[in-house]
Amino acid sequence: MGFNTTTHLRFCPCNFPFMNRCLAFIMGLSLAWGGQVQYARHDALAFKATYHAPLDTLTVARYWQATAIHSEAMYNGDGSWGLGYADWPTKPYPADHPLVRVAARHVLGLLTLIEAGLSDSAMIHRAKMGLNWLMERQTDEGAWPLYTINRGTVTTKSIYPTALAGRALSRAYRVLANPRYLLAASRAQVWQEVRPQDDSPLHHGLALAGILEHYRTVREVDLVARAVKEGLIILNRQLPNGSWNDPTALSTDEHAIIAEALLMLEQALVEGHPHRRRIRGGVNAALNFLLENQLDDGNFTSGQAELSAYQVPTFELAALVQARQVRRMEEFDLAITGAVRALGTHPSNTGALWRGTQDGRFLAMAHALVWFTRPRDQSGAAKSALRPAADDSP
Asked: Domain of 101: which CATH number?
Protein backbone atom coordinates (compact mmCIF):
# COMPACT_ATOMS: atom_id res chain seq x y z
CA MET A 1 0.00 0.00 0.00
CA GLY A 2 1.64 3.21 -1.16
CA PHE A 3 1.99 6.35 0.89
CA ASN A 4 0.61 9.46 -0.79
CA THR A 5 1.77 12.56 1.04
CA THR A 6 -1.00 14.81 -0.26
CA THR A 7 -3.75 12.33 0.60
CA HIS A 8 -2.15 11.53 3.89
CA LEU A 9 -1.92 15.13 5.02
CA ARG A 10 -5.58 15.63 4.17
CA PHE A 11 -6.84 12.75 6.27
CA CYS A 12 -4.16 12.37 8.96
CA PRO A 13 -5.59 12.57 12.51
CA CYS A 14 -2.97 15.16 13.33
CA ASN A 15 -4.63 17.51 10.81
CA PHE A 16 -8.20 16.96 11.99
CA PRO A 17 -9.75 19.99 13.73
CA PHE A 18 -9.54 18.15 17.05
CA MET A 19 -5.74 18.25 16.78
CA ASN A 20 -5.72 22.01 16.40
CA ARG A 21 -7.89 22.32 19.48
CA CYS A 22 -5.69 19.82 21.28
CA LEU A 23 -2.53 21.74 20.40
CA ALA A 24 -4.13 25.00 21.53
CA PHE A 25 -5.11 23.35 24.82
CA ILE A 26 -1.60 21.99 25.27
CA MET A 27 -0.08 25.42 24.55
CA GLY A 28 -2.30 26.92 27.24
CA LEU A 29 -1.19 24.29 29.74
CA SER A 30 2.42 24.77 28.73
CA LEU A 31 2.24 28.50 29.39
CA ALA A 32 0.33 27.99 32.63
CA TRP A 33 2.98 25.58 33.89
CA GLY A 34 5.88 27.81 32.90
CA GLY A 35 6.58 25.98 29.63
CA GLN A 36 7.50 22.62 31.15
CA VAL A 37 5.95 19.98 33.34
CA GLN A 38 8.00 19.73 36.52
CA TYR A 39 8.28 16.39 38.25
CA ALA A 40 9.25 15.53 41.80
CA ARG A 41 10.81 12.23 42.74
CA HIS A 42 10.92 10.63 46.17
CA ASP A 43 13.07 7.67 47.16
CA ALA A 44 10.44 4.97 46.81
CA LEU A 45 9.99 1.95 44.57
CA ALA A 46 12.81 0.39 42.60
CA PHE A 47 13.62 3.04 40.00
CA LYS A 48 16.70 2.33 37.96
CA ALA A 49 17.19 5.82 36.53
CA THR A 50 17.51 8.78 38.91
CA TYR A 51 16.50 11.61 36.58
CA HIS A 52 14.72 12.38 33.32
CA ALA A 53 14.56 15.93 32.04
CA PRO A 54 11.02 17.36 32.07
CA LEU A 55 9.14 17.14 28.80
CA ASP A 56 7.70 20.21 27.13
CA THR A 57 4.03 19.47 26.47
CA LEU A 58 4.35 20.65 22.88
CA THR A 59 7.04 18.01 22.40
CA VAL A 60 4.53 15.38 23.52
CA ALA A 61 2.12 16.73 20.91
CA ARG A 62 4.81 16.36 18.24
CA TYR A 63 5.42 12.78 19.36
CA TRP A 64 1.71 12.11 19.00
CA GLN A 65 1.67 13.73 15.55
CA ALA A 66 4.46 11.44 14.30
CA THR A 67 2.62 8.41 15.68
CA ALA A 68 -0.64 9.49 14.04
CA ILE A 69 1.12 9.91 10.69
CA HIS A 70 2.41 6.35 10.82
CA SER A 71 -0.95 4.91 11.77
CA GLU A 72 -2.66 6.84 9.00
CA ALA A 73 -0.16 5.43 6.52
CA MET A 74 -1.24 1.93 7.64
CA TYR A 75 -4.98 2.60 7.53
CA ASN A 76 -6.77 0.45 4.94
CA GLY A 77 -9.88 2.60 4.63
CA ASP A 78 -12.26 -0.07 5.96
CA GLY A 79 -11.72 0.12 9.73
CA SER A 80 -8.53 -1.96 9.76
CA TRP A 81 -4.84 -1.13 9.85
CA GLY A 82 -1.85 -2.87 8.32
CA LEU A 83 -1.19 -6.06 6.40
CA GLY A 84 -1.02 -8.54 9.25
CA TYR A 85 2.09 -10.65 9.55
CA ALA A 86 3.35 -9.30 6.23
CA ASP A 87 4.20 -6.15 8.20
CA TRP A 88 6.66 -8.05 10.38
CA PRO A 89 10.30 -8.05 9.16
CA THR A 90 10.53 -11.81 9.77
CA LYS A 91 7.14 -12.52 8.12
CA PRO A 92 6.52 -15.54 10.39
CA TYR A 93 3.28 -16.57 8.62
CA PRO A 94 2.24 -16.50 4.95
CA ALA A 95 -0.67 -14.14 5.54
CA ASP A 96 -1.45 -10.48 4.92
CA HIS A 97 -4.93 -10.26 6.45
CA PRO A 98 -5.11 -7.32 8.90
CA LEU A 99 -4.84 -8.41 12.52
CA VAL A 100 -7.66 -8.08 15.03
CA ARG A 101 -5.30 -6.91 17.76
CA VAL A 102 -4.01 -4.08 15.56
CA ALA A 103 -7.53 -2.79 14.89
CA ALA A 104 -8.57 -3.26 18.52
CA ARG A 105 -5.60 -1.30 19.90
CA HIS A 106 -6.11 1.52 17.44
CA VAL A 107 -9.77 1.66 18.47
CA LEU A 108 -8.82 1.63 22.16
CA GLY A 109 -6.42 4.52 21.49
CA LEU A 110 -9.14 6.49 19.73
CA LEU A 111 -11.60 5.81 22.55
CA THR A 112 -9.01 7.03 25.05
CA LEU A 113 -8.84 10.34 23.20
CA ILE A 114 -12.62 10.54 22.74
CA GLU A 115 -13.26 9.89 26.44
CA ALA A 116 -10.74 12.59 27.39
CA GLY A 117 -12.35 15.18 25.11
CA LEU A 118 -9.41 15.29 22.66
CA SER A 119 -11.35 14.32 19.54
CA ASP A 120 -13.90 15.48 17.00
CA SER A 121 -16.45 13.85 14.71
CA ALA A 122 -13.78 12.54 12.33
CA MET A 123 -12.02 10.65 15.11
CA ILE A 124 -15.34 9.26 16.35
CA HIS A 125 -16.18 8.11 12.83
CA ARG A 126 -12.80 6.36 12.53
CA ALA A 127 -13.40 4.56 15.83
CA LYS A 128 -16.84 3.43 14.65
CA MET A 129 -15.33 2.13 11.41
CA GLY A 130 -12.87 0.07 13.44
CA LEU A 131 -15.61 -1.26 15.69
CA ASN A 132 -17.72 -2.29 12.69
CA TRP A 133 -14.71 -4.07 11.18
CA LEU A 134 -14.22 -5.98 14.42
CA MET A 135 -17.87 -7.01 14.71
CA GLU A 136 -17.91 -8.26 11.12
CA ARG A 137 -15.14 -10.73 11.99
CA GLN A 138 -16.52 -12.09 15.25
CA THR A 139 -17.35 -15.78 14.94
CA ASP A 140 -20.69 -17.32 15.85
CA GLU A 141 -19.31 -18.58 19.17
CA GLY A 142 -18.10 -15.07 20.07
CA ALA A 143 -14.37 -15.37 19.40
CA TRP A 144 -12.09 -13.65 16.90
CA PRO A 145 -9.75 -15.64 14.66
CA LEU A 146 -6.00 -15.63 14.49
CA TYR A 147 -4.91 -14.65 11.01
CA THR A 148 -1.79 -16.74 10.69
CA ILE A 149 -3.51 -17.77 7.47
CA ASN A 150 -5.77 -15.42 5.57
CA ARG A 151 -9.00 -17.29 6.24
CA GLY A 152 -8.34 -17.20 10.00
CA THR A 153 -8.63 -19.93 12.62
CA VAL A 154 -9.91 -20.05 16.21
CA THR A 155 -7.50 -21.77 18.60
CA THR A 156 -6.53 -21.58 22.26
CA LYS A 157 -4.43 -18.53 21.39
CA SER A 158 -7.51 -16.74 20.05
CA ILE A 159 -7.83 -15.37 23.58
CA TYR A 160 -5.37 -12.68 22.45
CA PRO A 161 -7.52 -11.09 19.71
CA THR A 162 -10.79 -11.95 21.47
CA ALA A 163 -9.85 -10.29 24.74
CA LEU A 164 -8.63 -7.14 22.99
CA ALA A 165 -11.60 -6.87 20.62
CA GLY A 166 -14.05 -7.55 23.44
CA ARG A 167 -12.34 -4.93 25.58
CA ALA A 168 -12.60 -2.35 22.79
CA LEU A 169 -16.30 -3.09 22.31
CA SER A 170 -17.06 -2.97 26.06
CA ARG A 171 -15.40 0.39 26.36
CA ALA A 172 -17.04 1.62 23.16
CA TYR A 173 -20.46 0.96 24.64
CA ARG A 174 -19.61 3.17 27.64
CA VAL A 175 -18.29 5.94 25.42
CA LEU A 176 -20.57 5.74 22.35
CA ALA A 177 -23.67 3.99 23.77
CA ASN A 178 -24.36 1.71 20.79
CA PRO A 179 -26.13 -1.47 22.05
CA ARG A 180 -24.56 -3.50 19.23
CA TYR A 181 -21.18 -3.00 20.91
CA LEU A 182 -22.47 -4.35 24.21
CA LEU A 183 -23.99 -7.41 22.53
CA ALA A 184 -20.73 -8.26 20.75
CA ALA A 185 -18.71 -7.66 23.93
CA SER A 186 -21.04 -9.93 25.93
CA ARG A 187 -20.68 -12.70 23.34
CA ALA A 188 -16.91 -12.38 23.67
CA GLN A 189 -17.22 -12.89 27.42
CA VAL A 190 -19.24 -16.07 26.88
CA TRP A 191 -16.47 -17.53 24.70
CA GLN A 192 -13.75 -16.46 27.12
CA GLU A 193 -15.48 -18.16 30.03
CA VAL A 194 -15.62 -21.56 28.28
CA ARG A 195 -12.41 -21.19 26.26
CA PRO A 196 -9.73 -23.90 26.25
CA GLN A 197 -7.28 -23.11 29.06
CA ASP A 198 -3.50 -22.93 28.87
CA ASP A 199 -0.69 -22.07 31.29
CA SER A 200 0.24 -18.67 29.87
CA PRO A 201 0.09 -15.76 32.35
CA LEU A 202 0.00 -13.47 29.31
CA HIS A 203 -3.19 -15.08 28.01
CA HIS A 204 -4.75 -15.01 31.47
CA GLY A 205 -3.71 -11.36 31.82
CA LEU A 206 -5.40 -10.46 28.54
CA ALA A 207 -8.53 -12.32 29.64
CA LEU A 208 -8.43 -10.58 33.03
CA ALA A 209 -8.27 -7.11 31.45
CA GLY A 210 -11.17 -8.01 29.16
CA ILE A 211 -13.31 -9.21 32.07
CA LEU A 212 -12.64 -6.08 34.10
CA GLU A 213 -13.30 -3.76 31.16
CA HIS A 214 -16.66 -5.47 30.79
CA TYR A 215 -17.27 -5.17 34.52
CA ARG A 216 -16.70 -1.42 34.33
CA THR A 217 -19.45 -1.34 31.70
CA VAL A 218 -22.14 -3.68 33.09
CA ARG A 219 -21.22 -3.83 36.83
CA GLU A 220 -22.19 -7.48 37.19
CA VAL A 221 -20.66 -8.85 40.40
CA ASP A 222 -20.08 -12.34 38.99
CA LEU A 223 -17.48 -10.78 36.70
CA VAL A 224 -15.41 -9.82 39.74
CA ALA A 225 -15.39 -13.44 40.91
CA ARG A 226 -14.22 -14.53 37.45
CA ALA A 227 -11.56 -11.82 37.50
CA VAL A 228 -10.25 -12.93 40.90
CA LYS A 229 -9.97 -16.50 39.59
CA GLU A 230 -7.92 -15.31 36.61
CA GLY A 231 -5.81 -13.09 38.86
CA LEU A 232 -4.93 -15.92 41.23
CA ILE A 233 -3.91 -18.13 38.31
CA ILE A 234 -1.54 -15.36 37.22
CA LEU A 235 -0.11 -14.83 40.71
CA ASN A 236 0.52 -18.54 41.10
CA ARG A 237 2.98 -18.24 38.20
CA GLN A 238 4.72 -15.11 39.48
CA LEU A 239 8.44 -15.51 40.16
CA PRO A 240 10.24 -14.06 43.22
CA ASN A 241 11.57 -11.14 41.13
CA GLY A 242 8.03 -10.13 40.13
CA SER A 243 8.14 -11.49 36.58
CA TRP A 244 6.13 -14.40 35.17
CA ASN A 245 6.84 -18.05 34.47
CA ASP A 246 5.30 -18.25 31.01
CA PRO A 247 5.73 -21.19 28.60
CA THR A 248 7.12 -18.63 26.13
CA ALA A 249 9.68 -16.16 27.51
CA LEU A 250 8.07 -12.74 27.90
CA SER A 251 9.42 -9.34 26.93
CA THR A 252 8.86 -6.39 29.23
CA ASP A 253 5.98 -5.12 27.11
CA GLU A 254 4.18 -8.45 27.59
CA HIS A 255 5.03 -8.32 31.29
CA ALA A 256 3.45 -4.85 31.39
CA ILE A 257 0.22 -6.16 29.86
CA ILE A 258 -0.13 -8.53 32.82
CA ALA A 259 0.80 -5.85 35.36
CA GLU A 260 -1.82 -3.47 33.97
CA ALA A 261 -4.49 -6.18 34.18
CA LEU A 262 -3.64 -6.81 37.84
CA LEU A 263 -3.83 -3.08 38.52
CA MET A 264 -7.35 -3.13 37.10
CA LEU A 265 -8.20 -6.00 39.43
CA GLU A 266 -6.78 -4.13 42.42
CA GLN A 267 -9.08 -1.21 41.55
CA ALA A 268 -12.11 -3.46 41.28
CA LEU A 269 -11.73 -5.10 44.71
CA VAL A 270 -13.24 -3.35 47.70
CA GLU A 271 -11.35 -2.79 50.94
CA GLY A 272 -11.47 -5.95 53.04
CA HIS A 273 -11.80 -8.33 50.10
CA PRO A 274 -10.02 -11.55 51.15
CA HIS A 275 -7.70 -11.50 48.13
CA ARG A 276 -7.04 -7.77 47.84
CA ARG A 277 -3.86 -7.81 49.94
CA ARG A 278 -2.37 -10.63 47.88
CA ILE A 279 -3.33 -8.93 44.62
CA ARG A 280 -1.75 -5.69 45.76
CA GLY A 281 1.44 -7.48 46.76
CA GLY A 282 1.65 -9.12 43.36
CA VAL A 283 1.11 -5.75 41.68
CA ASN A 284 3.91 -4.22 43.76
CA ALA A 285 6.30 -6.99 42.72
CA ALA A 286 5.27 -6.65 39.07
CA LEU A 287 5.76 -2.88 39.09
CA ASN A 288 9.14 -3.17 40.77
CA PHE A 289 10.25 -5.66 38.12
CA LEU A 290 9.11 -3.25 35.43
CA LEU A 291 10.85 -0.25 37.00
CA GLU A 292 14.05 -2.17 37.63
CA ASN A 293 14.19 -2.99 33.93
CA GLN A 294 13.86 0.62 32.78
CA LEU A 295 17.09 1.95 31.31
CA ASP A 296 18.59 5.38 31.86
CA ASP A 297 17.29 6.51 28.46
CA GLY A 298 13.71 5.63 29.41
CA ASN A 299 13.49 2.44 27.33
CA PHE A 300 13.27 -1.02 28.85
CA THR A 301 15.39 -4.12 28.80
CA SER A 302 13.86 -7.26 27.40
CA GLY A 303 13.18 -8.92 30.75
CA GLN A 304 13.14 -12.66 30.14
CA ALA A 305 13.23 -12.52 26.34
CA GLU A 306 16.06 -11.50 24.02
CA LEU A 307 16.11 -7.73 23.50
CA SER A 308 14.79 -6.89 20.05
CA ALA A 309 16.15 -4.07 17.92
CA TYR A 310 12.55 -2.91 17.69
CA GLN A 311 11.90 -2.82 21.45
CA VAL A 312 10.02 0.35 22.32
CA PRO A 313 8.19 1.24 25.57
CA THR A 314 4.61 0.75 24.45
CA PHE A 315 2.63 -1.34 26.92
CA GLU A 316 5.19 -0.47 29.60
CA LEU A 317 4.15 3.17 29.21
CA ALA A 318 0.45 2.31 29.38
CA ALA A 319 1.04 0.29 32.58
CA LEU A 320 3.02 3.12 34.18
CA VAL A 321 0.25 5.63 33.46
CA GLN A 322 -2.29 3.20 34.93
CA ALA A 323 -0.09 2.73 38.01
CA ARG A 324 0.20 6.51 38.46
CA GLN A 325 -3.58 6.87 38.31
CA VAL A 326 -4.27 4.01 40.71
CA ARG A 327 -1.52 4.66 43.26
CA ARG A 328 -1.36 8.47 42.91
CA MET A 329 2.38 8.42 43.59
CA GLU A 330 4.56 11.11 42.02
CA GLU A 331 7.43 8.64 41.78
CA PHE A 332 5.85 7.22 38.63
CA ASP A 333 6.08 10.59 36.85
CA LEU A 334 9.81 10.11 36.41
CA ALA A 335 9.41 6.74 34.74
CA ILE A 336 6.53 7.98 32.57
CA THR A 337 8.58 10.95 31.35
CA GLY A 338 11.48 8.72 30.38
CA ALA A 339 9.22 6.21 28.62
CA VAL A 340 7.40 8.91 26.63
CA ARG A 341 10.68 10.43 25.45
CA ALA A 342 12.10 7.01 24.55
CA LEU A 343 8.98 6.15 22.56
CA GLY A 344 8.76 9.54 20.87
CA THR A 345 12.40 9.63 19.79
CA HIS A 346 12.82 5.95 18.88
CA PRO A 347 13.93 5.50 15.23
CA SER A 348 10.86 3.38 14.50
CA ASN A 349 8.66 6.30 15.56
CA THR A 350 10.53 9.24 14.05
CA GLY A 351 12.20 7.65 11.04
CA ALA A 352 11.93 4.19 9.57
CA LEU A 353 8.42 2.88 10.13
CA TRP A 354 8.29 -0.61 11.60
CA ARG A 355 4.67 -1.48 11.07
CA GLY A 356 4.63 -4.56 13.26
CA THR A 357 4.50 -2.57 16.54
CA GLN A 358 2.49 0.44 15.43
CA ASP A 359 -0.68 -0.63 17.24
CA GLY A 360 1.15 -0.56 20.57
CA ARG A 361 2.79 2.78 19.80
CA PHE A 362 -0.55 4.35 18.88
CA LEU A 363 -2.27 3.17 22.06
CA ALA A 364 0.67 4.12 24.30
CA MET A 365 1.01 7.59 22.79
CA ALA A 366 -2.73 8.19 23.18
CA HIS A 367 -2.33 7.43 26.90
CA ALA A 368 0.66 9.79 27.02
CA LEU A 369 -1.24 12.61 25.31
CA VAL A 370 -4.12 12.29 27.77
CA TRP A 371 -1.74 12.11 30.72
CA PHE A 372 0.21 15.23 29.76
CA THR A 373 -2.97 17.25 29.11
CA ARG A 374 -4.81 16.10 32.24
CA PRO A 375 -6.44 18.84 34.33
CA ARG A 376 -4.79 19.85 37.59
CA ASP A 377 -6.14 21.51 40.68
CA GLN A 378 -4.44 24.51 42.29
CA SER A 379 -2.15 22.30 44.35
CA GLY A 380 -0.84 20.63 41.19
CA ALA A 381 -2.40 17.26 41.98
CA ALA A 382 -3.59 15.35 38.94
CA LYS A 383 -7.30 14.89 38.43
CA SER A 384 -8.26 11.98 36.21
CA ALA A 385 -9.99 12.99 32.99
CA LEU A 386 -11.19 9.44 32.47
CA ARG A 387 -13.14 8.43 35.58
CA PRO A 388 -14.32 9.77 38.96
CA ALA A 389 -11.63 10.13 41.59
CA ALA A 390 -13.28 7.46 43.77
CA ASP A 391 -12.51 4.83 41.16
CA ASP A 392 -8.80 5.64 41.38
CA SER A 393 -8.40 4.94 45.08
CA PRO A 394 -5.98 2.14 46.02
From this structure: 1.50.10.10
Number of domains in the chain: 1
* 359-362 contacts, C-beta under 8 A, 24 or more apart: 359/81, 359/82, 359/99, 359/101, 359/102, 359/104, 359/105, 359/106, 360/105, 360/253, 360/312, 360/314, 360/315, 361/67, 361/70, 361/312, 361/314, 362/67, 362/68, 362/70, 362/71, 362/105, 362/106, 362/109
Task: Express each pLDDT in 6-64 by its tens digit.
Answer: 333 333 444 444 444 444 443 333 322 223 322 222 223 555 556 677 888 889 989 99
Residue 267's nearest CA partner among 320, 338, 316, 215 is: 215
Q: Which domain holds residue 209?
A: 5-392
- Per the confidence metrics, is the pTM higher than 0.70? yes
For 68-125, the pLDDT digits (tens) are: 999 999 999 999 999 999 988 778 899 999 999 999 999 999 999 999 999 989 999 9
